[in-house]
Amino acid sequence: MSTSERPPLPPLVVEEIEELLHRVDRRHWPTITEMRGKKFYAPDEPLPPRKPQQLIQRILWYASILFGTEADQYDQFRSDPNYPIWLLRLEERVTARVMNALDKLEAGDPKSQITGYHGLSWSDIGRPLQTALWEIRTQYEQGTAPSQRQASTAQPQQHVVASTTPKAEEVLRETPRALPETVADQLKRLRSECHLTVEQMAIALEVQPRSISKHLAGQTVPRARHIVAYEELFSQRLGKTVTLRIPDKKSV
């Protein structure tokens, strides 16, 4: 990738960004594919309802998380005259990534459709996608994105990889690492910050309250679509982009 595509980030930071974007893909693709509808249904089989607006919203949320995940790492370059250009290039990459993902997901099952089942054409998706990403890019250019507003009143933003000087590496090696928050811990913390009841969370996720209680207690692991729904709920309540951290299975 040309250096003009991104700010002059260290190669290790770029690799970490790519890993984060991959995690976003893994988290959001299932929420899109679950809206798949078969091309043909038996006469005695009820047709699932068509939900074009819900599908568009899931795609736009996926795109916004992709954009924000990388754009948040550009914050130290906001005073650079190339900052708007880098954000524009990021918008173009996110658009291509989302449309390519839809291509792959559509091809995953030749007997069913996703966009077509809900009566959507590529232009029906492309127009709102372009508008949504333009709005997000404008927020970052103006310094009004949720993460930027939060950073202006909090500690300086921490980037994916901190200083890699020998001194810093020595300190990192000698400092005991705190155990990562479990999904249940994150849900309980965010629920408290949002002042939400179990019943309110259940309504937002369209599940039974007992399912929420099991998630909070760590008795069951939320499915991918539940994770995305939690992120949307907490992001809306807190006015910032919330991404739940899913611990690596190897570290559990």
Class of secondary structure makeup: mainly alpha
Distance between the termini: 35 Å
Q: Based on DSSP secondary structure assignment, what is the total number of beta strands?
A: 2
Shape: globular
Tell me the β content: under 5%
Give the rounded overall mean pLDDT. 82
Structure characterization notes:
This protein has 252 residues and is mainly alpha-helical. It has two domains: 8-152, no CATH class; 179-251, 434 Repressor (Amino-terminal Domain), CATH 1.10.260.40. It contains ten helices and two strands. A two-stranded antiparallel sheet has the order 1-2. The two termini are 35 Å apart. The model is unreliable at 153-172 (pLDDT under 50).
Topology record:
Layout (H helix, E strand, L loop, with lengths): L10 H23 L3 E2 L13 H20 L11 H25 L4 E2 L8 H21 L3 H7 L13 H9 L8 H12 L3 H8 L3 H9 L6 H15 L14
Antiparallel strand pairs: 1-2
Helix pairs in contact: 1-2, 1-10, 2-3, 2-4, 3-4, 7-10, 8-9
List keywords for this structure.
single chain, 252 residues, mainly alpha, 434 Repressor (Amino-terminal Domain), 2 domains, two-stranded antiparallel sheet, 2 strands, globular
